């Protein structure tokens, strides 16, 4: 029989803290420390902007013409740049993103690809163009006509691939501003042939095009306290770092075109018919979907191509960029959304090829997104949010986004098509919050907008679309990627141009991490308060990863350095094994001690003498513990005594389960355990991840329970991104069927 002679008051702690002699130590619980930049007067240790935080401002006056016959953009702009930094500037940097399509661009020369037999021309072009080539002889890139100062004098400038440096004759001192003008043009790419975030789609049946236009003007780069000028070259994957400012934009298009853009149209009465204008005015004030341009009007509009031009005027305040869409094919509907402190206008532009799906779902998805995101961050501050339908694209700009999801030619569509169209609209509209308002640096940290936005996207989908088979961005959704070969992964904290698989790395993994943090580690209330604090602190500002990490800890009073370190700085994965379970009870009578006998000595099967074989079930029943009176030396200087009998009486009917856990995946995790009792009931207990802090490879925990356990399961509802469920159960058997609570909308 097994007999443990222990002091009653210490036997439970002894079991609970027992550890392996060999400790695996990889600093998973060390503070991030020097991995984060030192706090200063610009960014505080709490994660908030400092008392001397500053940022630059750039205002734009733009006039642009869309030449339909030539598929060309020509334009001019005046930029007023405000130096609100404490530093004198001798030059300015602007982004020339269209130069990505210029022959010899870095995207072309640094791309890698392979040839395959039995390819098709379209696939060859797609592969070649996606890797920076020019497979259809496209003349891309900006043609700069001039750069002039406010007096009309030429300015000295240098173009370095996708960046333009303007050399200033006089230093731009702190508090000063400068105005200068540029004129430029470029050829619009056919997205079917060349892909891209912006371009046109040609419809052969009616001979019309749908234009989604962005990165169409030279844009000021960000200059900030973190890295000075953000002038990293644009290689295609890393998106944009941009400066806030006010925009007045005039867009000249054929006079039968409908235009949607960043900001609000200023001359709607001039560019719309009387009936369309009246419907527009009604829609702005109504919470019911209203058609401003009907499908019948759009079809009629497609029949003739006007050669006359008219100008749409838009104005937008405090935005970081500007985009627009234009076509004579557009149907246009919208509705007002009532938030607590604002009433933005949700609207959609789409060709007949998008119906009936788009008229049924698009504007509704815009509304749902604005409502939930506003609840979790701040009320949407802009006057409108627009969803535009275009084939095979999902891309965002302030107040406007371009989204895929097209029914079959006969108007039918599958659930998969509806799902894809819905979540891409939610995702791209959600980008208005991250990074259009909480203005992180996409060129450096793709996860700060894509990951945070994908996290909220999943919450919209689970809350508003429970009947659609949405499975993205839960912890369970990332397990396949996290357990894949480590040479195919990069940490989340990797520049997007160096990431091997941008989707799981910048979208799904950080979103899954935040869902885990919200629903399991912090709980919704504490997480939501902390996340909202971050959003409100950095609304219309330029946050960094450190600002996010520090704010989440500052607002929650929870040390999360282990979480950021493991999830964001490593490629470890969660694989916790229930390695061994021992069952104990207190011996209360002599016959208890006779129920257990020692295993016979003899053939040990390769084991050392005295080494016990791990049990695989509870068939042998409990092992019994004997207790003795607390010896006098235990009390030391204390004058009072323990009531040994009362304590023994309290514990005599308890069930003690010593569970040994092994960290097979390397990523430390909370221990979420479900105990299924012999009476048919069950109970779940949560142990914080800090249980691994003294041994990151193996740990033990004693659970003191009122009932006898029939089986126990680690991570019973797939909350922890555990990649191997077969080692999660005891007795050792096939794991029970689990429910993914995130999919069900927890």
TrEMBL record:
Q: Which residues form the Peptidase M1 membrane alanine aminopeptidase domain?
A: 411-567
At the top level of its lineage, which domain of life is listed? Bacteria
Pfam families with a match to the protein in the record: Peptidase_M1
Q: What ranges does the record give for the region Disordered, renumbered to this chain?
A: 595-621, 720-746
Name its species: Marivirga atlantica
Gene3D superfamilies, A to Z: Neutral Protease Domain 2
Q: Which residues form the signal peptide?
A: 1-18
Instruction: Write the record's keywords in alphabetical order, separated by commas.
Output: Signal
- Give one GO biological process term: peptide catabolic process
One Gene Ontology cellular component term attached to this UniProt record is: cytoplasm
Ranges of biased composition (kind: Basic and acidic residues)? 595-618, 733-746
**What is the official name of this protein in its record?**
M1 family metallopeptidase
The record's section on PANTHER family has: PROTEASE M1 ZINC METALLOPROTEASE (PTHR11533), PUROMYCIN-SENSITIVE AMINOPEPTIDASE-RELATED (PTHR11533:SF174)
The record, for InterPro entries, names: Peptidase_M1_aminopeptidases, Peptidase_M1_dom, Peptidase_M4/M1_CTD_sf
A molecular function annotated in GO for this UniProt entry is:
zinc ion binding
User: Which residue ranges does UniProt annotate as crossing the membrane?
Assistant: none
């Amino acid at each position: 029989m097994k007999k443990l002679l222990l002091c009653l008051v210490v036997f439970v702690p002894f079991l609970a803290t027992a550890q392996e002699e060999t400790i695996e130590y990889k600093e998973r619980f060390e503070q991030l420390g020097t991995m984060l930049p030192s706090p200063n007067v610009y960014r505080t240790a709490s994660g908030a902007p400092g008392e001397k935080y500053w940022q630059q401002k750039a205002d734009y006056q733009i006039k642009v013409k869309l030449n339909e016959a030539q598929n060309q953009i020509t334009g001019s702009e005046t930029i007023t740049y405000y130096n609100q930094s404490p530093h004198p500037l001798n030059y300015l940097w602007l982004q020339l993103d269209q130069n990505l399509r210029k022959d010899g661009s870095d995207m072309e020369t640094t791309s890698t690809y392979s040839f395959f037999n039995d390819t098709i021309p379209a696939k060859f072009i797609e592969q070649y163009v996606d890797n920076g080539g020019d497979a259809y002889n496209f003349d891309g890139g900006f043609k700069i006509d001039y750069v002039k100062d406010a007096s009309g004098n030429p300015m000295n400038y240098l173009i370095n691939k996708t960046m333009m440096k303007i050399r200033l004759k006089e230093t731009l001192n702190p508090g000063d501003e400068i105005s200068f003008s540029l004129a430029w043009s470029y050829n619009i790419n056919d997205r079917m042939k060349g892909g891209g975030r912006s371009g046109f789609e040609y419809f052969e049946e009616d001979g019309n095009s749908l234009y989604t236009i962005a990165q169409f003007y030279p844009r000021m780069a960000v200059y900030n306290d973190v890295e000075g000028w953000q002038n990293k070259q644009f290689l295609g994957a890393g998106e944009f770092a941009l400066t806030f400012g006010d925009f007045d934009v005039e867009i000249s298009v054929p006079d039968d075109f409908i235009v949607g853009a960043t900001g609000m149209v200023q001359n709607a009465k001039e560019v719309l018919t009387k009936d369309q204008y009246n419907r527009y005015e009604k829609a702005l004030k109504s919470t019911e979907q209203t058609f401003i341009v009907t499908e019948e009007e759009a079809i009629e509009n497609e029949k003739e191509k006007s050669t006359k031009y008219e100008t749409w005027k838009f104005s937008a305040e405090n935005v970081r960029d500007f985009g627009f869409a234009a076509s004579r094919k557009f149907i246009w509907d919208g509705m007002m959304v009532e938030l607590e402190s604002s009433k933005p206008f949700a609207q959609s532009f789409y060709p007949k090829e998008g119906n009936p799906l788009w008229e049924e779902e698009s504007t509704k998805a815009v509304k749902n997104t604005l409502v939930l995101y506003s609840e979790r961050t701040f009320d949407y501050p802009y006057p409108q949010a627009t969803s535009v339908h275009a084939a095979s694209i999902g891309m965002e700009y302030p107040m406007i986004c371009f989204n895929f999801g097209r029914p079959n030619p006969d108007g039918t569509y599958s659930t998969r098509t509806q799902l894809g169209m819905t979540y891409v609209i939610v995702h791209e509209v959600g980008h208005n919050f991250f990074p259009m308002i909480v203005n992180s640096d996409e060129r450096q940290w793709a996860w700060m907008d894509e990951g945070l936005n994908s996290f909220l996207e999943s919450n919209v989908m689970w809350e508003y679309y429970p009947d659609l088979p949405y499975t993205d961005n839960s912890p369970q959704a990332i397990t396949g990627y996290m357990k894949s070969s480590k040479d195919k992964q990069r940490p989340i904290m990797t520049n997007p141009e160096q990431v091997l698989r941008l989707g799981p790395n910048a979208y799904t993994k950080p979103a899954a991490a935040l869902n885990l943090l919200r629903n399991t580690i912090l709980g919704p209330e504490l997480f939501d308060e902390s996340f909202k604090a971050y959003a409100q602190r950095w609304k219309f500002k330029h946050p960094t990863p450190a600002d996010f990490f520090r704010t989440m800890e500052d607002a929650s009073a929870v040390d999360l350095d282990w979480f950021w370190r493991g999830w964001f700085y490593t490629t470890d994965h969660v694989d916790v094994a229930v390695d061994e379970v021992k069952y104990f009870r207190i011996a209360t009578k002599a016959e208890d001690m006779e129920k257990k006998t020692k295993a016979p000595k003899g053939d040990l099967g390769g084991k050392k003498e005295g080494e016990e074989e791990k049990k695989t079930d509870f068939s042998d029943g409990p092992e019994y513990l004997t207790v003795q009176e607390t010896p006098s030396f235990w009390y030391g200087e204390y004058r009072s005594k323990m009531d040994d009998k009362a304590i023994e009486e309290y514990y005599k009917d308890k069930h003690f389960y010593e569970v040994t856990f092994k960290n097979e995946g390397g990523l430390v995790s909370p221990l979420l355990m479900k105990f299924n009792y012999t009476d048919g009931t069950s109970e779940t207990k949560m142990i914080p991840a800090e249980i691994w802090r003294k041994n990151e490879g193996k740990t033990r925990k004693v659970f003191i329970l009122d009932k006898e356990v029939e089986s126990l399961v680690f991570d019973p509802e797939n909350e922890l991104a555990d990649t191997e469920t077969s080692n999660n159960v005891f007795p050792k058997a096939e794991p029970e069927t689990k429910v993914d609570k995130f999919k069900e909308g927890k």
